[in-house]
Amino acid sequence: MYREQRVVVAIPAFRAEATIREVISTLPDFVDTVIAVDDASPDRTYETLKSVTDPRLVVLQHERNRGVGAAMCSAYGKALELGCDLVVKMDADGQMDPAELKNLLDAMIGGGYDYAKGNRFLHRGALRSMPRHRLLGSLALTFLTKMASGYWHIFDPQNGFIACRASVLARLEFDQIASDYFFENDMLVHLNVLGARIVDVPMPARYAGEVSSMSIGRILRSFPIRLLFRYWWRIYQRYVLRDFSPIVLFLACGISLCGWAVAFGGFHWWRSWQTGTVASTGTVMLAALPLILGFQLLLQAILLDISSTPR
After folding, report:
1. Is there a single domain that holds both residue 206 and residue 59?
2. Domain boundary among 205, 220, 241
3. What pLDDT digit, counting tens, does each position of 66-119 carry?
4. For the chain, N or C: smaller number of CB within 10 Å?
5. 191 and 167: one domain?
6. C-alpha separations of 222 from 128, 141, 183, 281 in Å
7. Which pLDDT value is given to residue 135?
8. Which domain holds residue 50?
9. Within-domain flag for 1
């Protein structure tokens, strides 16, 4: 136990035969239970896990590869079944320093937060060791995740070193959470709907030349679209179903006005270009004023969403 809290470490494992044993062996003594989920690895990950003699270890196995998110949901379900207070996610590739576990746990226990996550960007010096493509990818996705999740104060959303209270996990619908590498981003969206309080914890990046199974190009192609859909899902879930908010009205009016301005202005610009006749001042104003007003309404909706961030 850690500060009278029962701690479970959940480890999703895929092709981790070479590293999983060391990851488990370096976990601190205060960890009560270790749940490792072999996600149908083609190597000997499962056999390696079964050979580990640590009495804290519970091994689960998926019959087919379902993704890191599905592995974590399986681990979360088992952790709730066994009874725990805090669940920490650690990867099986050795990138996460077990010494940082206390920082995540202290942030929740001492600060009263429901969810804590690592933030590598708070360590400027340590960022020099982060591969350039990962750094650029994280920066590109951060703003989109802020908007989609509603947690405007968090950064480094792809950081997988996370901890969550069991009381919050019990309220989540695991079958609704993304099963692949979109898991961390999707968790933030679902937690916002529940009103969970989240904190960033400084966490140095630690890379040792391992090959990541994530494709940065694929993530940058697919994640923005998925985040857009998740944004509207969150708005509907939180500001329509659970508590109707002016944010919805501002968004609806702002989008309508901006859409009208673009369509009306674009049509008259095209007609002026075709005929060589300059549009009248009134026509220009009918396009400009709705655009300005709609843009202001959209900004107001964003500001209200920021002020509604669970603290």
Report:
1. yes
2. 241
3. 999 999 999 999 999 999 999 999 999 888 899 999 999 999 999 889 999 998
4. C
5. yes
6. 27, 11, 13, 43
7. 67
8. 7-241
9. no
Contacts of 141 (CB under 8 A, 6+ apart): 157, 158, 185, 219, 220, 223, 224, 227
Q: Is the dihedral of CA 215, 209, 60, 163 positive or negative?
A: negative
Residues 193 and 290 in one domain: no
CA-wise closest residue to 117 among 145, 88, 79, 146 = 88
Burial class (CB in 10 A: 0-12, 13-18, 19+), 128: exposed
248-297 per-position pLDDT tens digit:
999 999 999 999 999 999 999 999 999 988 889 999 999 999 999 999 99
Distances (CA, A) of 104 to 184, 208, 278, 281, 285: 16, 22, 62, 59, 54
Tell me what pLDDT residue 253 has: 97
Domain membership of residue 109 (yes or no) is yes
**What pLDDT is stored for residue 108 in this prediction?**
93
Q: Is the pLDDT of residue 207 over 60?
A: no
Give residue 206's pLDDT: 62
What's the one-letter identity of residue 236?
Y
Between strands 115-119 and 162-165, the pairing is antiparallel
Is residue 119 helix, strand or coil? strand
Name residues whose C-beta falls within 8 Å of residue 257's C-beta, 6 or more positions apart in sequence.
290, 291, 293, 294, 297
User: What's the token pair of residue 42?
Assistant: 């083609």
